[in-house]
Write a structure and sequence with these properties.
The N and C termini lie far apart (37 Å). The protein is built from 5 helices and 7 strands. The strands form 2 sheets. Strands 2-4-5-7-6 form a 5-stranded mixed β-sheet. It is α+β, with helices and mostly antiparallel strands. The chain has a single domain, classed as Histidine kinase-like ATPase, C-terminal domain (Heat Shock Protein 90). It is globular, with a radius of gyration of 15 Å. Strand 6 and strand 7 form a beta hairpin.
């Protein structure tokens, strides 16, 4: 981890604390692909320590979204770390796939249980942005986590 990564992680923690105090997201125009690539770069080393590869299936040309970038980074980091934790317990090489579609992102994980805090926090952040977060069981091991967010123009109209 370099200084930039530590600063980014610190910003995420500070913003999560402020979410509970203020409850008002700081929205900005966010490039979905760039945002996801940053988080993959941040967590690739952690995944690699447990023989877990991270794969990106990112759709080209997705429109920007109006969102609280740091809060969304916390959601994506939580989902990715949950997946890494679940796969490292399996003792075999794992594969974490992050894909973007027009519905935004799809995350695959096989974590059987958690602390009980990460997913409720993630859901409340997504819902505060006018979106929705849900999970479905895979036909094999693991689960698929999905969330939706309104496009930038739609977010402005509903604000």
């Amino acid at each position: 981890m370099n200084v930039k990564d530590v600063t980014r992680a610190s910003d995420i923690i500070t913003r999560i604390v402020s979410l509970f105090k203020k409850g008002v997201p700081q929205r900005e125009s966010v490039d979905v692909t760039g945002f996801i690539q940053e988080m993959i770069a941040l967590l690739r080393g952690e995944a690699g320590r447990y023989s877990i590869s991270i794969h990106a299936e990112l759709t080209e040309g997705l429109p920007k979204i109006e969102a609280d970038r740091v809060a969304l980074q916390q959601v994506l980091m939580n989902l990715m770390l949950n997946a890494i934790e679940a796969m490292k317990e399996m003792g075999t090489p794992g594969r974490l796939t992050i894909a973007t579609r027009q519905i935004f992102n799809t995350f695959f994980t096989s974590k059987p249980q958690g602390t009980g805090m990460g997913l409720p926090i993630s859901r409340s952040i997504i819902e505060s942005h006018g979106g929705r977060l849900w999970a479905t069981s895979n036909s094999g091991p693991g689960a698929t986590f999905q969330f939706t967010l309104p496009l930038e123009a739609a977010a402005r109209q509903s604000a």
